[in-house]
């Protein structure tokens, strides 16, 4: 897991480099481009927390990259790799990500520099609540200011501590629940948030595979069924992506974790691999699969689609040439270095960029935020009404044709949407629409050579217009 600060710096620089490359294809003047690129506000705090009998000084950050739309939005990670450069790079990616999927937020990101495995749940709670109160003091959190979410090392549990601390410090704010997303459903969370990023990755790759001329160029047929997929990282994102690919008829030929990789050209079952991992502590020695004790080798095996869903910079100048996939779907943030990007593009590999492909998480976070502001769950008002309408329709069809609709068909047609159906459908629509916007720029704007540049152009266009229409700068 270790990553040096130089890796973070190069990650920040590669985000800036991608921005500059795309900026030359847009019409905005240097001043507006400089403003879009700049990190607007950076909070760095150190606070004491009593751990056992001693006091530890904890270092933490929150970056608000862009205020062209409010609130700012972005995860909080608990990791020893957290430093200002990394948090700034991730906040910038969030700004562009939100613009691409038409979510009306500015980008933000937070981090606490700790190894969460070293603390008890009680100690983590103390650290998280203290961090939240620091954010409150500095006005770096709030439903209309800055709305955090889970990231590495954090989940629904940490979000519930944050919302509780924020609510107790803001007792008169009726929208206090909307100060953070990724909460447990009982605390105002939305159904479908857990699998959102992985499902978004699946929808994005599926959409990319639906264009016949693009697939013919790669020597592939359209559709997901039958395609060989390798997934790196079986965390929340990778696991759900793998599961949706498998359900759509793809063949999971390889799975990669930090301590090794397995490969089986006949296909692996992700849930059986997870069960094997639970009992043995790792994915290696799965029945029938080839083992690679060096996980990096797993990336280089034969497949059609490679999904890196783990850490930054896993494909770099030293291994990019050995990647055999035809499509690389960036489920993680920044899994390719900029040198690797050039090598893969020259090989004719279709790289679906992170700032589009893993935006499913922030899309569903947006739905959760809207749910909290409206104080009503999705589907509550219309579910029964729609079921009754469909029932009337079936009655009319049956009486007109004199034929009975089968019970199974009746059940299928009559189902009004639950919250999860509406969330998944909103996510699907978002991923399809955004891919088409990006592909359109890629195909039609002179000189644009890859989807990543097209995605950055798409983001800059939208943010640039927002800044122009904000009117005169003071």
Describe the protein in words.
- With 474 residues, the protein is α/β, with parallel strands linked by helices.
- It has helices spanning 5-23, 30-37, 84-100, 121-137, 156-169, 196-208, 212-218, 236-247, 270-280, 295-298, 338-346, 354-357, 360-374, 383-401, 407-414, 419-444, 451-469, and strands spanning 41-51, 54-64, 72-78, 106-112, 146-150, 228-232, 251-257, 260-263, 290-292, 305-308, 327-329, 350-352.
- Strands 9-8-7-6-10-11-12 form a 7-stranded mixed β-sheet, with helices on both faces. A 5-stranded mixed β-sheet has the order 1-2-4-3-5.
Question: Based on DSSP secondary structure assignment, what is the total number of beta strands?
Answer: 12
Domains counted in the coordinates: how many?
A: 2
Radius of gyration: 23 Å
Helix and strand sequence: HHEEEHEHEHHHEHEEHEHEEHEHHHHHH
Profile the largest sheet: 7 strands, mixed
In short:
With 474 residues, the protein is of the alpha/beta class. The protein has helices at residues 5-23, 30-37, 84-100, 121-137, 156-169, 196-208, 212-218, 236-247, 270-280, 295-298, 338-346, 354-357, 360-374, 383-401, 407-414, 419-444, 451-469; strands at residues 41-51, 54-64, 72-78, 106-112, 146-150, 228-232, 251-257, 260-263, 290-292, 305-308, 327-329, 350-352. It has 17 helices and 12 strands.
Which properties best describe this structure?
474 residues, 5-stranded mixed β-sheet, disordered N terminus, alpha/beta, Rossmann fold, 2 domains, 7-stranded mixed β-sheet, 15% strand, single chain, Glutamate dehydrogenase
């Amino acid at each position: 897991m270790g990553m040096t600060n130089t890796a973070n710096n190069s990650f920040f620089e590669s985000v800036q480099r991608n921005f500059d490359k795309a900026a030359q294809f847009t019409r905005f003047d240097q001043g507006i481009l400089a403003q879009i690129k700049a990190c607007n506000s950076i909070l760095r705090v150190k606070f004491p927390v009593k751990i056992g009998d001693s006091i530890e000084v904890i270092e933490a950050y929150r970056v608000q990259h862009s205020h062209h739309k409010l609130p700012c939005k972005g995860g909080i990670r608990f990791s020893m790799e957290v430093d200002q450069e990394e948090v700034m790079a991730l906040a910038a990616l969030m700004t562009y990500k939100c613009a691409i999927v038409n979510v009306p937020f500015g980008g933000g990101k937070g981090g606490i520099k700790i190894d969460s495995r070293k603390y008890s749940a009680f100690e983590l709670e103390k650290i998280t609540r203290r961090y939240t109160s620091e954010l409150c003091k500095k006005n770096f959190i709030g439903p209309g200011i800055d709305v955090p979410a889970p990231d590495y090392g954090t989940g629904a549990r940490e979000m519930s501590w944050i919302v509780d601390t924020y609510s107790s410090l803001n007792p008169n704010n009726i929208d206090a629940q909307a100060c953070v997303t990724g909460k447990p459903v009982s605390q105002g969370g939305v159904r479908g948030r857990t699998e959102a990023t992985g499902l978004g990755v699946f929808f994005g790759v599926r959409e990319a595979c639906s264009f016949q001329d693009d697939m013919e160029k790669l020597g592939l047929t359209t559709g997901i069924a039958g395609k060989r997929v390798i997934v790196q990282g079986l965390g929340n994102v990778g696991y759900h992506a793998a599961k949706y690919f498998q359900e759509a008829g793809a063949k999971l030929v390889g799975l990669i974790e930090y301590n090794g990789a397995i490969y089986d050209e006949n296909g692996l079952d992700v849930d059986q691999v997870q069960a094997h991992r639970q009992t043995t502590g790792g994915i290696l020695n799965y029945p029938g699969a080839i083992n690679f004790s060096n996980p990096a080798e797993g990336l280089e095996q034969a497949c059609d689609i490679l999904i890196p869903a783990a850490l930054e910079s896993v494909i770099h100048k030293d291994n990019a040439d050995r990647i055999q996939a035809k499509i690389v779907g960036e489920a993680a943030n920044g899994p390719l270095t900029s040198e690797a990007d050039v090598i893969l593009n020259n090989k004719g590999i279709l790289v679906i960029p992170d700032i589009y492909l893993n935006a499913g998480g922030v899309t569903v976070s947006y739905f959760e935020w809207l749910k909290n502001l409206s104080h009503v769950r999705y589907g509550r008002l219309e579910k029964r009404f729609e079921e009754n309408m469909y029932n009337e329709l079936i009655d009319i069809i049956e009486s007109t044709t004199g034929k009975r609709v089968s019970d199974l068909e009746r059940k299928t047609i009559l189902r009004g949407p639950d919250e999860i159906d509406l969330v998944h459908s909103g996510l699907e629509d978002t991923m399809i629409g955004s891919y088409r916007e990006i592909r359109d720029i890629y195909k039609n704007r002179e000189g644009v050579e890859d989807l990543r540049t097209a995605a950055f152009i798409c983001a800059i266009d939208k943010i640039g217009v927002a800044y122009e229409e904000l009117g005169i700068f003071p």
